[in-house]
Design a protein that fits this description.
Length: 279
Amino acid sequence: MGNSVTLMIDGQSVTVAEGTTLRAACDQAEHVVPTLCWHENLTPANACRACVVEVKGSRTLVASCSRVAEDGMDVQTASERVLNARQVVAELLLSVSDAKLAPDLLHLAEMSSADPVRFTGGATWAQPVRQDNNLYVRDLSKCILCYRCVQACGDDAQNTFAIAVAGRGFGAHIDAGFGRDLPESDCVYCGNCVAVCPTGALMGKTEWDLRQQGQWDESRITQTETICSYCGVGCELDLHVMDNQIVKVTSPQDHPVTHGMLCVKGRYGYDFVQSEDHH
């Protein structure tokens, strides 16, 4: 067993394994901090600052998703500085993004009593929805630049490196290289970026079309576990079925083979299941 460290979290003594992040330590102490860009299978990006906590002796608030717990630390998860920071983070994100399909952001706004119109009227980076392929849609008006998609496409999972953040300030956006459409880029359509997107900025085409038609209804969707039939790796699939039609495919985040990630065939190659052509 490795070494452990003991720290104070909101006046409570907590002992965790050496190397544990403050976010995980707060979870263990049941003083859960909110997160937006953090994802269980991705490297912390330190992008959103929703998870900041106050550490005694530190001039600035620290990102708990990546800061490692140290012996003797004194941490506050709900001090006045922390609560104000969470509120402003939520208000700034709400001012430049459409949060209708962003449950974590809406939860942050609610818990922090954020004023959704405080910073409205700024230079919102509006742009048309990009439908340049048959598998997924990009609506970057919903993007909060959490970096999850970039990491999933990069060395955290896919190693394709088809997308990155381009531009600065209000012009910063996720780009496939020089403004290219996806078919012209290095994208292999695995959809792992879609799987980790927390805001609906990336969405499977089937789900997008159904939502546009007002037909998407979570209450009518059931999930069935199965194993992908395309190769011998053994990826576990969750088939999301509505009206006896597969409308989305995901994989469990805690599955030891996939960790939530799939290839293009596993995620999108299900049309044959519901084909009427049996020849």
